[in-house]
Amino acid sequence: MTNPTITVVHLLRHGEVYNPQGVLYGRLPGYHLSELGRKMAERVAEFLATRDIVAVVASPLERAQETAQPIAAAHGLEVLTDERLIEAANVFEGKTFGVGDGSLRHLRHWPHLRNPFRPSWGEPYREQVARMLAAMHSARDLARGHEAVLVSHQLPIWVTRCFVERRRLWHDPRKRQCSLASLTSFTYHDNEIVSVSYTEPAKDLLPLKKTVAGA
């Protein structure tokens, strides 16, 4: 029996975003990394500097592209773009989200919350998983026998991990293990995912926990 070809695909959540209004920015354009977010991206690039990275792919959103840049530069690569890595669609984009002064105080928004299992306020979890896995498999083929970094967003990364680990997809958002600039890494033997690991290269840079308006 021949030994399997080992490939690692890292799903990297982007760094902190400059968002002084605290809106849920979702797929909206114009949201860039903050100064701290740029430091996070550099920290991840340092962490991965000795890894066998042969491909860096990012969501088309600015925060993901900017997080990918220092990693690609460290390995002499260009950042590729894959639309399948984009943030989940959400009807509350551009709004603050809360009970006191956010979207939840308006009755017209309540019907969007009727089904948290799907979820009813945005792109279904299973659709997110399907497109993320497709992007990962493409990266696996591109980097076969080496490693690839895919820069994406918290919710798509988290539900993909849940699916691979055979957990339920609906969840408490406060319990996601997917901090800013974290790496969720999938190891393939040939075409099969055999393990998942999680690291936080920028853990010491993370701001105090608070309600996060975008991901």
Structure notes:
The protein is an alpha/beta fold. It has a single domain, classed as Rossmann fold. It contains four helices and six strands; from the N terminus they run βαβαβαβαββ. It has helices at 35-47, 62-74, 125-142, 154-164, and strands spanning 6-13, 53-58, 79-81, 147-152, 183-189, 192-199. The protein has a six-stranded mixed beta sheet, with helices on both faces. Helix 3 crosses helix 4. The chain is globular, with a radius of gyration of 17 Å. The relative contact order is 0.24. Residues 98-112 have low confidence and may be disordered. This is Phosphoglycerate mutase. GO terms for molecular function: phosphatase activity.
Task: Break the fold down into its secondary structure elements and pairings.
Elements: E1 6-13, H1 35-47, E2 53-58, H2 62-74, E3 79-81, H3 125-142, E4 147-152, H4 154-164, E5 183-189, E6 192-199
Parallel strand pairs: 1-4, 2-3, 2-4
Antiparallel strand pairs: 1-5, 5-6
Helix pairs in contact: 1-2, 3-4
